[in-house]
């Protein structure tokens, strides 16, 4: 039981108990924000504060990605001037932040969620609609 | 529509204009260069390049297509999902429609393009000439294309005019003729292109999409997506390029997941529940509370049984199920529920509640969690002492039941809570009532009894969803667990308590007040033996007699906090007092009975009355809406109407329904559905608040119009009924969709099917 497996292997060996979907929070418009409400399925799996912190960090990063700041202005102007050929060589601000988010999620998974039998899925894979949390069966508690 | 025609025309002209441009260049540029300035061809060239680039981006760029939802994501939603989900955006209700093709609820502003067969984010329109949808990602390029094309056409026309005017005498010459022809073409297509450009300039300024404009979504209403004129223009032109969602499946990083897993430390975890709405604070020390709460929720969630359902059986089943489940801490859960009931303003615990509660003042957003939602109770000002009292009271009662399923505890709470609350005429009172009702939930009839009390404006119903309190309601004490037969009695007791309008409710939170308040109740409870068999002495909250009798309590006191112990002590004292006043209770009982119209004599609260199922507590999650097909929008309405009509009596029972302004049936309904009801009432202005499971019953729906600022809201509220909410996380339908209630409400949908639901009730499902 103490073996280490890759996720794929674990998927075959560690049963998935449930999947929790954290939906988007549209209260402030179509900005990409996720609800910080703690789902009840995770109650006995992870601390509420930890979870909320993760979601808030994600929300902050998405807000940063969508921010209409100087970087987005410059990018837009540059793209216009170069007839958008700049997109072929440079990645946009949003894409940069998305990479940062992916890294953050990976790190959270490794440090916090995987040890608790949970797995966060990057919302970009779902079209930024939901954050999927996979709950793995905890065999140690199986009777 | 005119602008659509313009759109098509413009697209068609694009290619022609490009050809024209080339011709113009060939024919005029050399002359123009010499005559006017060398900047002319340069300018033309740049503009042409710009037109071409934007055209290409608009044509080839992904507009923001959403990938199809995975199977596991829509598992809960698919079959029983209501057609619409409401979400509140900046205070305005917006409707999200279920996309049958893509298997998710379309985010706001998203629409499904039938040509591309995809849902597109911020869908504007499908442009046939670029053979692409215009959505969030490429709208800017499309808009710039239109602008640059207009500028280009203007330029072509003007320069052509200059050329022709200069060569008036040689109109027959080839160059001049070509120029003239080009000018005519440019002039001809100028009208549709300019028309379309002007149209989109207006759209950008107003912050709308073509789709929204043509469907008239915000006609006469407020656009929640607008950021002001400047903000909108800035958003269109300067926002960062949105990401692509249709990504290639990339290799996922390997994450090692191996059991055993770390579990959060639950032993000494304290759950702080802040009860909003009257500021009753309470800190419940719950060990393993969460799990128990969940368990409770699970158990509590049940299909909404019609009022005539056999409550006892229900209770029994609940008990069985609860026992079967591995709930760890029932007492905490019960306490939790008590508090949650008090917090009218907090987020509804049940997902369903979220969905159907249009906008609570305190609710920041509507949560469509597919997961069960926890009860979040915002903090208010009530002195914590009161809560402590409540807690203690609660704990006291629940102590014996620590090892027992939650329901044992729940009833205790209920009783307490309701009474004091009422006395205070607090909104919390109403909530308490609901809690109380929840308490008596196993016997549904009881809940309604409490309803009148609970009227307070507490909008918070979720907590009291019958689901949560089902077991608890049934029996406060351990005895109830042991003697299921008592539960009906308890129920009746609850009802009896309801009869005591003001006195009957003893909120565990009110320490001193409760003393005397409870007495009458207690007396009543004392009477139980003398009363009809229905009433069991184990009344919620007043259980003390029972508790006292049970000495060898399985309760473990080692994990009780100081407050709990104190409350236990206090309870004991109260019981002493009660015993002394038992004889006085009888007279009061009559009073109570009269007070609550609901009771016929106080005990026989018809099950109909309290059909609390409404929000099945946390369990009822929106995602698993009742299995009705199609849009269930009207279900709630239906339920509400019927419900309201069914229990007019509750109204008089002094229901001070908080805001049930527009909805008298609503208030009634809320009364009935204990927990939920209080919430729905308070949410009056908010709009239709519906307990998930019992959407049909919840009055919220039909009444929503008031709170929504636009007509849409009303629709949304109405549609909110999707009562997926009633569905539990587990997908069990606690509140069966069928439990919608048989009444027919003015459904907006054309087709209404009658379905026989649980308990033989006929429900109407709008198709």
Automatic annotation (TrEMBL), chain A:
<dbReference type="GO" id="GO:0000139">
    <property type="term" value="C:Golgi membrane"/>
</dbReference>
<comment type="function">
    <text>May be involved in protein transport from Golgi to cell surface. The ZDHHC9-GOLGA7 complex is a palmitoyltransferase specific for HRAS and NRAS.</text>
</comment>
<dbReference type="GO" id="GO:0043001">
    <property type="term" value="P:Golgi to plasma membrane protein transport"/>
</dbReference>
<dbReference type="InterPro" id="IPR019383">
    <property type="entry name" value="Golgin_A_7/ERF4"/>
</dbReference>
<keyword id="KW-0472">Membrane</keyword>
<protein>
    <recommendedName>
        <fullName>Golgin subfamily A member 7</fullName>
    </recommendedName>
</protein>
<dbReference type="Pfam" id="PF10256">
    <property type="entry name" value="Erf4"/>
</dbReference>
<keyword id="KW-0449">Lipoprotein</keyword>
<comment type="similarity">
    <text>Belongs to the ERF4 family.</text>
</comment>
<dbReference type="GO" id="GO:0005795">
    <property type="term" value="C:Golgi stack"/>
</dbReference>
<feature type="domain" description="Golgin subfamily A member 7/ERF4">
    <location>
        <begin position="20"/>
        <end position="132"/>
    </location>
</feature>
<keyword id="KW-0564">Palmitate</keyword>
<keyword id="KW-0333">Golgi apparatus</keyword>
<dbReference type="GO" id="GO:0006612">
    <property type="term" value="P:protein targeting to membrane"/>
</dbReference>
<dbReference type="GO" id="GO:0002178">
    <property type="term" value="C:palmitoyltransferase complex"/>
</dbReference>
<dbReference type="InterPro" id="IPR051371">
    <property type="entry name" value="Ras_palmitoyltransferase"/>
</dbReference>
Automatic annotation (TrEMBL), chain B:
<feature type="domain" description="Palmitoyltransferase DHHC">
    <location>
        <begin position="95"/>
        <end position="215"/>
    </location>
</feature>
<feature type="transmembrane region" description="Helical">
    <location>
        <begin position="141"/>
        <end position="165"/>
    </location>
</feature>
<dbReference type="Pfam" id="PF01529">
    <property type="entry name" value="DHHC"/>
</dbReference>
<feature type="transmembrane region" description="Helical">
    <location>
        <begin position="177"/>
        <end position="199"/>
    </location>
</feature>
<keyword id="KW-0012">Acyltransferase</keyword>
<dbReference type="GO" id="GO:0031966">
    <property type="term" value="C:mitochondrial membrane"/>
</dbReference>
<feature type="region of interest" description="Disordered">
    <location>
        <begin position="655"/>
        <end position="710"/>
    </location>
</feature>
<dbReference type="GO" id="GO:0000139">
    <property type="term" value="C:Golgi membrane"/>
</dbReference>
<keyword id="KW-0472">Membrane</keyword>
<feature type="compositionally biased region" description="Polar residues">
    <location>
        <begin position="418"/>
        <end position="435"/>
    </location>
</feature>
<feature type="region of interest" description="Disordered">
    <location>
        <begin position="570"/>
        <end position="589"/>
    </location>
</feature>
<keyword id="KW-0808">Transferase</keyword>
<keyword id="KW-0812">Transmembrane</keyword>
<keyword id="KW-0564">Palmitate</keyword>
<keyword id="KW-0333">Golgi apparatus</keyword>
<protein>
    <recommendedName>
        <fullName>Palmitoyltransferase</fullName>
        <ecNumber>2.3.1.225</ecNumber>
    </recommendedName>
</protein>
<dbReference type="InterPro" id="IPR001594">
    <property type="entry name" value="Palmitoyltrfase_DHHC"/>
</dbReference>
<dbReference type="GO" id="GO:0019706">
    <property type="term" value="F:protein-cysteine S-palmitoyltransferase activity"/>
</dbReference>
<feature type="region of interest" description="Disordered">
    <location>
        <begin position="289"/>
        <end position="328"/>
    </location>
</feature>
<feature type="region of interest" description="Disordered">
    <location>
        <begin position="418"/>
        <end position="450"/>
    </location>
</feature>
<feature type="compositionally biased region" description="Polar residues">
    <location>
        <begin position="314"/>
        <end position="328"/>
    </location>
</feature>
<feature type="compositionally biased region" description="Polar residues">
    <location>
        <begin position="663"/>
        <end position="683"/>
    </location>
</feature>
């Amino acid at each position: 039981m103490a073996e280490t497996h890759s996720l794929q292997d674990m998927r075959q060996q560690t049963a998935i108990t449930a999947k929790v979907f954290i939906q988007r929070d549209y209260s402030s418009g179509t900005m990409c924000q996720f609800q910080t409400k703690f789902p009840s399925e995770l109650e006995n799996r992870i601390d509420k504060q930890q979870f909320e912190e993760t979601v808030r960090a994600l929300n902050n990063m998405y807000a940063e990605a969508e921010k209409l700041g100087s970087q987005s202005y410059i990018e837009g102007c540059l793209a216009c001037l170069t007839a958008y050929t700049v997109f072929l060589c440079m990645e946009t601000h949003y894409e940069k932040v998305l990479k940062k988010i992916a890294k953050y999620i990976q790190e959270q998974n490794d440090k916090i969620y995987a040890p608790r039998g949970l797995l966060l899925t990057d919302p970009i894979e779902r079209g930024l609609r939901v954050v999927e949390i996979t709950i793995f069966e905890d065999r140690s508690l199986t009777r | 529509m005119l602008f659509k025609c313009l759109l098509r025309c413009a697209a068609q002209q694009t290619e022609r204009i490009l050809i024209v441009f080339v011709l113009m260049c060939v024919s005029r540029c050399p002359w123009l260069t010499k005559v006017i300035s060398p900047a002319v061809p340069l300018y033309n060239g740049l503009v042409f390049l710009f037109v071409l680039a934007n055209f290409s981006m608009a044509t080839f760029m992904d507009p923001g297509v959403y990938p199809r939802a995975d199977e596991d994501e829509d598992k809960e939603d698919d079959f029983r999902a209501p057609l619409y989900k409401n979400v509140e955006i900046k205070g305005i209700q917006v409707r999200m429609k279920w996309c049958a093709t893509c298997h998710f609820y379309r985010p706001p502003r998203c629409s499904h393009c039938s040509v591309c067969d995809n849902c597109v984010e911020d869908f504007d329109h499908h442009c046939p000439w670029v053979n692409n949808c215009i959505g969030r990602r490429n709208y800017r390029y499309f808009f710039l294309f239109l602008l640059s094309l207009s500028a280009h056409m203007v330029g072509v026309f003007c320069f052509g005019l200059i050329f022709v005017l200069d060569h008036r005498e040689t109109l027959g010459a080839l160059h001049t003729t070509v120029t003239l022809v080009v000018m005519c073409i440019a002039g001809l297509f100028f009208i549709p292109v300019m028309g379309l450009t002007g149209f989109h300039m207006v759209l950008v300024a107003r912050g709308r999409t073509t789709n929204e404009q043509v469907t008239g979504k915000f006609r006469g209403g407020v656009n929640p997506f607008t950021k002001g004129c400047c903000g909108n223009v800035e958003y269109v032109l300067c926002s960062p390029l949105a990401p692509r969602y249709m990504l290639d499946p990339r290799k996922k990083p390997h994450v090692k997941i191996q059991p055993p897993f770390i579990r959060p430390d639950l032993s000494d975890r304290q759950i702080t529940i802040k009860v909003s709405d009257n500021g009753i604070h309470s800190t419940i020390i719950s060990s393993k509370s969460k799990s128990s709460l969940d368990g409770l929720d699970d158990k509590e969630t049940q299909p909404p049984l019609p009022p005539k359902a056999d409550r006892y059986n229900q209770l029994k089943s609940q008990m069985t199920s609860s026992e079967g489940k591995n709930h760890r801490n029932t007492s905490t859960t019960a306490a939790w529920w008590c508090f949650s009931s008090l917090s009218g303003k907090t987020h509804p615990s049940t997902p369903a509640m979220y969905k159907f509660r249009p906008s609570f003042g305190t609710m920041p957003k509507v949560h469509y969690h597919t997961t069960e939602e926890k009860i979040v109770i915002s903090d208010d000002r009530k002195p914590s002492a009161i809560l402590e009292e409540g807690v203690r009271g609660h704990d006291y009662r629940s102590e014996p039941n620590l090892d027992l399923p939650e329901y044992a505890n729940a009833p205790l709470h209920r009783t307490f809570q309701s009474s004091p609350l009422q006395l205070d005429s607090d909104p919390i009172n109403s909530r308490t009532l609901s809690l109380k009702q929840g308490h008596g939930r196993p016997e549904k009839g009881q809940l309604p009894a409490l309803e009148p009390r609970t009227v307070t404006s507490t909008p918070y119903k979720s907590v009291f969803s019958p689901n949560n309190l089902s077991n608890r309601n049934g029996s406060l004490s351990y005895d109830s667990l042991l003697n299921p037969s008592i539960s009906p009695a308890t129920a009746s007791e609850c009802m009896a308590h309801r009869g005591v309008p003001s006195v009957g409710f003893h909120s565990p939170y009110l320490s001193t007040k409760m003393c005397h308040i409870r007495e009458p109740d207690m007396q009543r409870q004392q009477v139980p033996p003398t009363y009809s068999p229905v009433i069991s002495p184990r009344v919620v909250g007043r259980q003390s007699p029972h508790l006292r009798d049970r000495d060898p309590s399985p309760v473990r006191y080692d994990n009780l906090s100081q407050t709990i112990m104190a409350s236990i002590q206090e309870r004991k004292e109260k019981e002493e007092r009660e015993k002394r006043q038992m004889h006085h209770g009888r007279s009061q009982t009559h009073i109570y009975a009269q007070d609550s119209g609901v009771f016929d004599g106080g005990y026989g609260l018809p099950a109909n009355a309290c059909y609390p199922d409404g929000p099945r507590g946390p369990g009822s999650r929106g995602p698993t809406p009742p299995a009705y097909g199609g849009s269930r929008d009207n279900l709630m309405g239906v339920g509400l109407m019927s419900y309201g009509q069914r229990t007019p009596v509750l109204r008089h029972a002094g229901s001070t329904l908080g805001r049930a302004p527009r909805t008298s049936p609503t208030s009634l309904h809320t009364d009935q559905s204990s927990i939920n009801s209080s919430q729905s009432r308070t949410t009056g202005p908010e709009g239709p608040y519906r307990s998930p499971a019992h959407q049909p019953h919840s009055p919220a729906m039909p009444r929503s119009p008031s709170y929504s600022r636009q007509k849409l809201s009303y629709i949304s509220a109405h549609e909110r009924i999707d009562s997926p909410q009633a569905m539990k996380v587990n997908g069990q339908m606690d509140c069966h969709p069928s439990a919608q209630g048989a009444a027919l409400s003015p459904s907006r949908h054309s087709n209404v099917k009658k379905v026989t639901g649980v308990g033989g009730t006929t429900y109407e499902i709008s198709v």
